[in-house]
Design a protein that fits this description.
Radius of gyration: 17 Å
Strand content: 25-35%
Number of helices: 7
Helix content: 10-25%
Distance between the termini: 28 Å
Largest sheet: 7 strands, mixed
Number of strands: 13
Structural class: alpha/beta
Shape: globular
Amino acid sequence: MPLTHTVGSITVTALVDGAGPFFQPREEAFPDATPAHWRAADARDPATVTRDGRWWLPFRCFALRAGDGPVTLVDAGIGPADSPAASWAPVPGRLPEELAAAGIDPSDVRTVVLTHLHSDHIGWAGSLFTQADHLVQQAELDALELFHPELPARLVGPLRAAGQLRVVDGDTALTPAVRVLSTPGHTPGHQSVLVDSGDHRLLVTGDLLVHAVQLVEPGLAYAHEEDPPTARASRMALLPALTAHGPATLANPHLGDPFVPLG
């Protein structure tokens, strides 16, 4: 069964769409990381390093649900065999099976929050979730030329034509307990999702950080960030703020443990 974490009345379910080795050495992906950083990161997250020192990368989505109500899905995974991520990710993904194991029908999903438009976060968007609005930041749409060349015709256009594209600009409340937060840098319109019960907070991070080495040292840049200084500022502002009023949890698509406690 997929792993879950409860925040107030909301159950957050981690759904693994796939896993595989990253396409380049991790030392190239984080060129400023030191041997000490890597030792600390591997001690904290041993599941994401292989015996030969490669970066083993899970690909997750997260389902948010209060009781048996509608589902908000954060990100849409690597997708089927012909998805935009097929050139580098371990497609086909298994999100439909993961949803079934969690007792979620795709028609239960009424909102899909796309943290950003990189190919490993959009694979099942649109076609699998025909009852859902797909929420994207305006700044992300304004930067479509940075992403997969098929994206306007393959995803954004059909969503807009079907009335399923919801465009927001900055922080946005989805429910009293769930908010979208603008966390730019990895991409211009990157967004994260905060679940806040009052005495506990959970942040679904998207790629605000992508490896435990950025928990060890949040200032470390990732080679595939569009704007490293802005990404660094987003991490270094938000991570400490999460624990300012008590315990918090990170729900991350790429760490070995999908739910990482902070504070």
